[in-house]
Fold this protein.
Amino acid sequence: MTAKDHPVTSDPNRDGTPDARDRALRPPDRDRDPRDAAPDARTWRAARAWRGVRAPLTTRARTLHAGAWWVWALGLAVAASRTANPLLLGLLIGVAGYVVAVRRTQDPWARSYGAFVKIGLVVIGIRLIFAVFLGSPIPGTHTVLTLPQAPLPEWAKGVRIGGRVTAEGLVFALYDGLKLATLLICVGAANALANPARLLKSLPGALYEAGVAIVVAMTFAPHLVADVQRLRATRRLRGRADRGVKALWQVGLPVLEGALERSVALAAAMDARGYGRTAQVPRAVRHTTTALTLGGLLGVCAGTYGLLAAQGAGYALPVLLAGLAAALGGLWLGGRRSVRTRYRPDRWGARAWLVSGSGAGVAGLMIWASAYAPTALHPPAVPLTAPTLPLWPAASVLLGLLPALVAPAPPAPPASPSKETPR
Amino acid sequence: MIRFEQVSVTYEDAAGPALRGVDLSVDEGELCLLVGPSGVGKSTLLGAVSGLVPHFTGGTLHGRVTVAGRDTRTHRPRELADIVGTVGQDPLAHFVTDTVEDELAYGMESLGLPPDTMRRRVEETLDLLGLASLRDRPIATLSSGQQQRVAIGSVLTAHPRVLVLDEPTSALDPAAAEEVLAVLQRLVHDLGTTVLLAEHRLERVVQYADQVILLPEPGAAPVIGAPADIMAVSPVFPPVVALGRLAGWSPLPLSVRDARRKAKALRERLAPLAAAAGAGAAFQPEAGAAPLAPTRPAAPTLPMLPTNTSRPIGEAKGLSVRRGRIEALKGVDLTVRPGETIALMGRNGAGKSTLLSAFVGLHEPAAGTVRVGDAIPHRTRPAELLRHVGLVPQEPRDLLYADTVATECQAADRDADAPAGSCRALVTGLLPDVADATHPRDLSEGQRLALALAVILTARPPLILLDEPTRGLDYAAKARLVDILRSLAAAGHATVLATHDVELAAELAHRVVILADGEVVADGPTAEVVVSSPAFAPQVAKVLAPLPWLTVPHVARALEATA
């Protein structure tokens, strides 16, 4: 059988064609893609190979390790911190946004991304406002407008309120704000993609109970918001205004009361379900744990001081490392007091390596790029020039798109989540 | 399995003990039902089994409680976690994690079970409770019935030998309640689990019980015995028992099936009355706005639609409401006329609460119109709307802000612009023995509901909406509520109740509207709607079918007429 026999569908490099790529970027259907069932044997083989690589739907077993998403996002954030080029920053935001758009689930925590984007915009706004009213250290020649300057006493020399606003200063502030916003958006992406509770599940045993406390606190925040909304609505039933600061203030106390009652009820439920059961450990082990942890932390402090202080750099590193080792040993021993086991912990599989690797790769390539192309990564604000997109750094940022291909795809949203009959 | 020896519990700063002289034992594999009016210490008794009383709640426990041989004095709740599984009244307060599967595993993780055992038990429990399709869902997106099942499942995975449940079906619609009870039955019969549960809705559970513990009044010793014997002396009993007491049957029937077999004579006695009354033509409204002189006193006096054509005081036309991406109501039509009582029924999440909220302007219609009197709720100022419509929410406490009853009443007078003292007069009418200085939180569920109702009534709204008013009420409080609502209807107020309580609807409503998935699927006189579907039929109707009586008082009145 040759390609000639089947001219219509025989494309040996089908995986590389735009069509296949396009197919991969689209969240796959729940059912098998009908196009996979091509009649041709070679196509079929290619399709089968592709199906092996293509991202599966998210289920509990296939969920990507939460840590992988964080490594990826922090990699992008490191890359963002290395450049002030607005085009590269925009590309990073685009990469993070695209991956979030195609890979986030319908779960409550996934909605936080929008909030992070808004905070990013606010950060840019604040940075610009500061640049306008407090001036900017950037010398500039293009005056945009001149504000009346507030006279300040002698001791406040060096501080300026009002005065000349230059285009250069504004552009510099914009780049700077954009950098901060990009960092925030990267963190937001990790928040939206990784379940925070699952991340805490990966903590060592000794820290597990602290982790549960944090998870509980996090699930309380949405409850609190719901309470405020409900109580503000019931104010309307009493014939009082349901909007405004006063309304919010007056529901404060009942909301806190409710939250307190709920936490007491939850604490009772957790106790009744065995939270805080401990194993009997020999006294010697307990004392060793305490000694190791305390000693280790002291060592870490001393080592860090040594590293930062001018003298003593010689012994600082060994002390720091020994302290770290002792503290980790203490944590490990402390874990023996906990009888807990883990239910289906996330596995760090090949896909997790690919996702985290792509983030680390972006960071590494960008750090390298700041060595070979420093001017392209930091376009000068003085004199004003249009920034250009440096080819290779831009290409390395695109590596961050890999999770959009390999990470498990979210399942199709149910038609109406809360309408399912209790059956 | 559970043994109480001379147990009494006294809470700090309480006048008397919450429990006194409790001596009882529950054997393995028994489904034991704890009954009694509100405030007799049912929750305290349940808490003593899991060790939460006194380890968590404080107070002093005298005597001895042992569960599977472990003394709760020396074992803290966490050390009993592998033996006792506890599910409280509010399943949402019970959840530690955020998805169904993690929640099922949480208890086992605490106990330190090996991972493969945990996995197997989670799968078994998902199947046992019918939760397999929900395994990855965030718990917050589930309906109340589903949440209740997850809460039960989350303690079942630890394979406890004792299951303690506080009002497991109170918040559930009839079908979901059946489901939960079926699961409990299965646990008792297949796994030999001991189940101890407290429940106000006796009509749902009493027929499944092997043993009943009755706490007749606060501080009194419990009465323990077979269900039929206890029901003969209990101050709280379901309608089917009331019917049995009325007809003098012995032993008392506990299920519709038992009663139906005994009711042959009663049906024969009542049949001529029904025939004489004609097919519904002479049925009288219970306390309608159009009171007709009872023409045939022997007729089954069922509440029915008052034949009035006055202007509606509440009206929804083609009403659609969207909540987020979900269409909570789709083209709903509802007309409420003065003096009418309407029961709004349907499963959890069918849109009942959304419909009530739309009438007070909490939701803006996506399509269609809603009006109360001349006002369009969501465009009316709250102070003005108060005179047209009042809503008592599911949790009446949300409506109460002040720290004493007196200040609450003063605030209500101010809000409604009513003469000073009008709210307090209403409270005195509804709750004769409540002191001014009482904190609203210290009231019982029934008293709190009455206070919230009084606050709403201060503005004299012609339309009153109640969301799940009987949740957590015992039979006495419910009877008081029925009286109050009847007299309001007689005074010309229209009432709409969203409720799962079929007995309440049968007793009170002229009309029943059933919602499913945001649409009206039935709307008609109570007798017709309620009897035509088994899930919504009250017990008396099931016992006496095809005769048209719905409640025990109706039957009593008919029998009086013949005597």
